[in-house]
Amino acid sequence: MKAQVKDQLSLTKKEWNGMIVLIVLIILVLAAPYAYQWFHKDSTINPNEFKAALAALENSNANNFDATKTTYSAGTLFKFNPNHLSAEKWRALGLSEKQVNTITNYEAKGGRFYKTEDFKTIYGLSDSDFKRLSPYIDLPSYKSARVKVLELNSADSAHLTSVSGIGPAFARRIVYYRERLGGFVDKDQLKEVTGIDDLKYMEIKDQLTVNAARIRKININTIAFDKLRLMPYLNYKQVNAIIEYRNQHGAYASINDLKDIPILTEEILRKIEPYLSY
Questions:
Q1: Is 175 helix (H, G, I), strand (E, B) or coil?
Q2: N or C: which end of the chain has fewer CB within 10 A?
Q3: Is the domain defined by 66-136 classed in CATH 1.10.150?
């Protein structure tokens, strides 16, 4: 029995050599980190040198902007008129691509800058950007500009673009809506034009006047369905009801006759009344 156990546990010389090599490798692997730390000691930081470097960096940031200099880390500063300035020059002034796109879109919709403070209202422009650029804004052609008042029912699209806040796109929309309507009775109707909200209306209203005598009236007793359908205040069903009621009851004598049509509300009648003739 002992002989069998001894035979099982006995090792050859080759096996003993292999075991010794394995043990040596394990020892070397375990000792490697300690050896590395011994030969590569971390250098200590000098507190005084670190504080001096930090102070120099803070001083550099504090003096990054200087109104007397013509260069800035974000761009090159120069005198400029913000109206119709090219995208390339906006980028040269240090504005981001998103800011440049916002300004060009603002101008495309008829926006203009009349005073330095107007530039501050641009969406996405930070206070630091405005503070940096405002000393260089030059608006010579707008400093003494007079407000031009335009009659809304007679002006064509070219004349409308001379109004501050109305670009080519807005001018086309206004003329198109005016033709469908038959003319403007009141300036407030401009709010019904696509894209003209309360803010845009406040910007342009003082530059416009309305001559209601210039509106084009329609004869409600002779107008065809297709022509009446162009009236923005009436939908398909309302136009159809007006024509059918006329066919059944005869000509309208006044706006009161139209009140007998249930589908026409008081608000609708109030809007269309100035445009009707009998």
A1: helix
A2: N
A3: yes
